């Protein structure tokens, strides 16, 4: 079955969601991510949804779950690039995703992750 | 079987010529529309009517045979609405078709008064219905036009301003209702994306009252911005508004508010790791006199 | 209202939910809805399709172009022969879960559309009709 690829970028993980996910795929991503965070002892996860045109309550819950599970595993999650129409719709749906950190784009998201959990020394292999 | 279709198709040009001759003064409005346009409009309509009548369904203008007539009337109404005609004038354009039609029918059926009455009745039904279609289409165009104007007005009244790198300001003047909130939200969020701004200052100095509904609308906007990765600061909170908010028990849920726009700007600068620095030394020295070197 | 074009899609698997979304998106784009309106309608469709699948044990969606005297719109009807909803009012209230996890779906969708109508009886299935006008 197709899976959403998870890239490792040093101490962080990067996921780019580009496809219109069906529910199983979303659940698989949740599983894969928690697995990988644990495997790599990642300190942060960046989820890029800048090309996602629809985020319904299921995907919203998925994002919230990922953030919560990651936190238990001592990793921060930042969701970046939510489109304006999607944000407006999610708010109308009643989801505020208050437990999820957000940033405008990948660059700012990485900045935020570094601010929150970046360990420069570990990065440099010291 | 109605004789109308045959009469109309045989005398199409004559009817039209008579119709045009009838139009004068008040109905004609030569100040609003050119001869050529009236000419082409009447020709198009006459052809469409002949087509519709040919189907045999003389008075059922809702049917498929009359679709080109309805379309033509729609187009004529729309263009006349824009040109400044009134509903009455536009409907009269169509209604004035009655006389030429009646004249032709009288000539053709002079010998049989019963048949003549029948056809005149059908004609009047037909033209009345066409006039109603015209009036409806006219009304429709007007309503769409007004709706579009309202939209533009709303957009104009909520400009989003780039205060500094990464900092937007949205001064809201007037009341915030549901419709306006939509427009405000959309403009703000679009601007956030376009300018990559992390902070948006929503200034409500110009908002007369804040009740639970307005607060809800503001909170929706702020939540949407946050979902995208931008933080909002509300500024211009007047003392009365602060009181109202507390009295109503509105929970601003962690939203930062500042009384003055300047304070909000200072905070925004901090948040975006920027600073405004006062220059000192030669550059900051005031000179009252022109130095003579 | 008058009805123009119409299409019926089955909702029997989670891929069908995705297909339903895409179909609604396609129609909404054709009808030149604004981006925000499109997104709202497609999201509502996603919620309701998922409900029909998860809670209703499968059903179908009918998508239809409609018009009334002044405007055009898109109408979606979601129907299933599932267990039905005993307490519609509670179901419409946000955050309600009936073990089938309807969560925000029903109440939320109501806010995303202009017209919302639901018929449901325990044991008799559910039908939700929504319209978004241009």
Please supply descriptive tags for the structure shown above.
heterotrimer, A: alpha/beta, Transcription Regulator spoIIAA, five-stranded mixed β-sheet, B: 293 residues, Globin-like, 2 domains, 11 helices, 59% helix
Topology overview:
The complex is a heterotrimer of chains A (126), B (293) and C (134).
Chain A: E1 6-9, E2 12-16, H1 23-40, E3 44-48, H2 57-72, E4 76-80, H3 84-93, E5 101-103, H4 106-117, H5 120-124
Helix pairs in contact in A: 1-2
Chain B: H1 4-10, H2 12-22, H3 35-54, H4 67-83, H5 87-95, H6 98-108, H7 113-156, E1 161-164, E2 167-173, H8 178-195, E3 199-206, H9 212-228, E4 231-235, H10 239-247, E5 256-258, H11 261-271
Parallel strand pairs in B: 2-3, 3-4, 4-5
Antiparallel strand pairs in B: 1-2
Chain C: E1 2-11, H1 14-30, H2 35-54, E2 59-67, E3 72-80, H3 88-92, H4 105-112, E4 115-120, E5 126-133
Antiparallel strand pairs in C: 1-2, 2-3, 3-5, 4-5
Mean pLDDT of chain B: 86
Rounded Rg of chain B: 33 Å
Coarse shape of chain B: elongated
Determine the most extensive contact between two protein chains. Answer: A-C, 21 and 27 residues
Q: Encode the helix/strand succession of chain B as letters.
A: HHHHHHHEEHEHEHEH
**SSE pattern of chain A, N- to C-terminal:** EEHEHEHEHH
Strand order of the biggest β-sheet of chain A: 1-2-3-4-5
Across the major sheet of chain B, the strand order is 1-2-3-4-5
- Strand-pairing-aware structural class of chain B: alpha/beta
- Give the CATH architecture of chain A: 2-Layer Sandwich
H/I helix tally of chain A: 5
CATH topology term of chain A = Transcription Regulator spoIIAA
The biggest beta sheet of chain A, please? 5 strands, mixed
CATH structural class of chain A: Alpha Beta
- Helix coverage percent of chain A: 40-55%
Distance between the termini of chain A: 39 Å
Describe this structure in words.
The complex is a heterotrimer of chains A (about 130), B (about 290) and C (about 130). With about 130 residues, chain A is of the alpha/beta class. Chain A has helices at about 25-40, 55-70, 85-95, 105-115, 120-125, and strands at about 5-10, 10-15, 45-50, 75-80, 100-105. The longest helix of chain A is centred in the first third of the chain and has 18 residues, at about 25-40. By secondary structure, chain B is α/β, with parallel strands linked by helices. Chain B has two domains: about 5-150, Globin-like, CATH 1.10.490; about 160-270, STAS domain (Transcription Regulator spoIIAA). In chain B, helix 1 (about 5-10) runs antiparallel to helix 3, helix 2 crosses helix 6 and helix 6 packs antiparallel against helix 7. By secondary structure, chain C is an alpha+beta fold. Chain C has one domain (about 1-135): Heat Shock Protein 90 (2-Layer Sandwich). Chain C is about 35% helix and about 30% strand. Chain C has four helices and five strands, in the order βααββααββ. Chain C has helices spanning about 15-30, 35-55, 90, 105-110, and strands at about 1-10, 60-65, 70-80, 115-120, 125-134. In chain C, strands 1-2-3-5-4 form a five-stranded antiparallel β-sheet, with helices on one face. In chain C, helix 1 (about 15-30) packs antiparallel against helix 2 and helix 2 runs antiparallel to helix 4 (about 105-110). Chain C starts with a strand and ends with a strand. The interface of A and C includes residues 24, 61, 86 and 89 of A.
């Amino acid at each position: 079955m197709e899976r959403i690829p998870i890239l490792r970028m040093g101490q962080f993980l990067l996921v780019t969601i580009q496809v219109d996910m069906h529910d199983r795929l979303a659940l698989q991503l949740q599983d894969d991510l928690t697995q990988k965070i644990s495997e790599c002892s990642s300190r942060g996860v960046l989820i890029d949804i800048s090309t996602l045109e629809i985020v319904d309550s299921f995907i919203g819950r998925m994002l919230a779950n990922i953030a919560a599970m990651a936190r238990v595993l001592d990793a921060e999650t930042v969701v970046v690039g939510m489109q304006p129409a999607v944000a407006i719709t999610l708010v109308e749906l009643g989801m505020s995703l208050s437990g999820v950190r957000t940033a405008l784009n990948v660059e700012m998201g990485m900045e935020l992750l570094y601010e929150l959990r970046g360990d420069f020394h570990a990065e440099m292999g010291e | 079987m109605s004789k109308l279709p045959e009469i109309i198709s045989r005398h199409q040009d004559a009817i039209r010529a008579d119709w045009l001759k009838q139009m004068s003064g008040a109905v004609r409005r030569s100040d609003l529309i050119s001869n050529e346009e009236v000419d082409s409009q009447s020709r198009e309509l006459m052809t469409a009517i002949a087509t519709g009548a040919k189907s045999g369904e003389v008075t059922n203008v809702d049917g498929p045979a009359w679709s080109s007539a309805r379309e033509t009337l729609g187009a004529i109404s729309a263009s006349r609405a824009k040109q400044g005609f009134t509903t009455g004038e536009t409907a009269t354009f169509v209604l004035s078709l009655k006389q030429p039609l009646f004249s032709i029918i009288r000539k053709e059926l002079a010998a049989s008064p019963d048949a003549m009455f029948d056809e005149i009745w059908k004609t009047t039904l037909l033209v009345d219905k066409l006039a109603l279609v015209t009036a409806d289409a006219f009304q429709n165009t007007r309503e769409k036009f007004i709706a579009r104007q309202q939209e533009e007005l709303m957009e104009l009244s909520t400009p989003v301003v780039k205060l500094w790198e990464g900092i937007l300001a949205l001064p809201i003047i007037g009341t915030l209702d549901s419709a306006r909130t939509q427009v405000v939200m959309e403009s703000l969020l679009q601007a956030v994306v376009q300018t990559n701004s992390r902070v948006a200052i929503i200034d409500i100095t110009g908002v007369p009252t804040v009740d639970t509904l307005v607060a809800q609308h503001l909170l929706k906007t702020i939540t949407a911005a946050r979902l995208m990765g931008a933080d909002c600061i509300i500024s211009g909170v007047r003392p009365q508004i602060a009181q109202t908010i507390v009295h109503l028990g509105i929970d601003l849920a962690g939203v930062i508010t500042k009384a003055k726009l300047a304070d909000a700007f200072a905070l925004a600068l901090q948040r975006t790791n920027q600073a405004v620095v006062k220059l000192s030394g030669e550059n900051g020295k005031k000179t009252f006199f022109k130095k003579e070197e | 209202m008058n009805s123009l074009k119409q299409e019926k899609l089955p909702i029997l698997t989670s891929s069908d939910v995705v297909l339903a979304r895409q179909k609604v998106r396609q129609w909404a784009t054709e009808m030149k809805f604004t981006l925000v309106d499109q997104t709202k309608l497609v999201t509502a469709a996603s919620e309701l399709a998922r409900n029909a699948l998860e809670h209703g044990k499968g059903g179908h969606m009918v998508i239809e172009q409609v018009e009334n005297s002044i405007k055009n719109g898109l109408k979606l009807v979601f129907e299933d022969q599932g267990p039905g909803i005993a307490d519609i009012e509670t179901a419409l209230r946000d955050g309600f879960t009936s073990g089938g996890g309807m969560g925000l779906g029903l109440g939320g969708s109501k806010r995303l559309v202009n017209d919302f109508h639901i018929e449901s009886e325990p044991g008799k299935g559910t039908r939700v009709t929504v319209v978004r006008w241009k």
